[in-house]
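Backbone-to-sequence.
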């Protein structure tokens, strides 16, 4: 059973930084996708960044140049470094994973495993 546990959210002023972490366990396959998604109140869940098993990354246009996704295979942990945060980045951030996707940058409903979410609030 795949389990994902996020941490690192919080409140920060615009221009600040946060690093989200996602501890993963229960993988039994060598190929997988992992990603960060976010959902603001009243809005649909959207992709923020994804990373393939070979380390290839994709980003939403709104976060390119400000956010960086990375993973530590030894620690089974996924990260999202968020710099130059803006009020519009305020949302619940979710870690997701799937072991059956051939393309990682896809809509959220293709991912089968989710963490509980961590809140990020950016004030102006």
């Amino acid at each position: 059973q795949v389990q994902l546990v996020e941490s690192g959210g919080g409140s920060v002023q615009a221009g600040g930084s946060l690093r989200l972490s996602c501890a993963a366990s229960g993988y039994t396959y060598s190929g997988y996708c992992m990603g960060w998604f976010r959902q603001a109140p009243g809005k649909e869940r959207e992709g923020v960044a994804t990373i393939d098993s070979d380390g290839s990354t994709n980003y939403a246009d709104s976060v390119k140049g400000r956010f960086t996704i990375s993973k530590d295979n030894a620690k089974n942990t996924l990260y999202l470094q968020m710099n130059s945060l803006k009020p519009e980045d305020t949302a619940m951030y979710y870690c997701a994973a799937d072991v059956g996707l051939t393309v990682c940058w896809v809509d959220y409903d293709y991912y089968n495993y989710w963490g509980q979410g961590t809140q990020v609030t950016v004030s102006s």
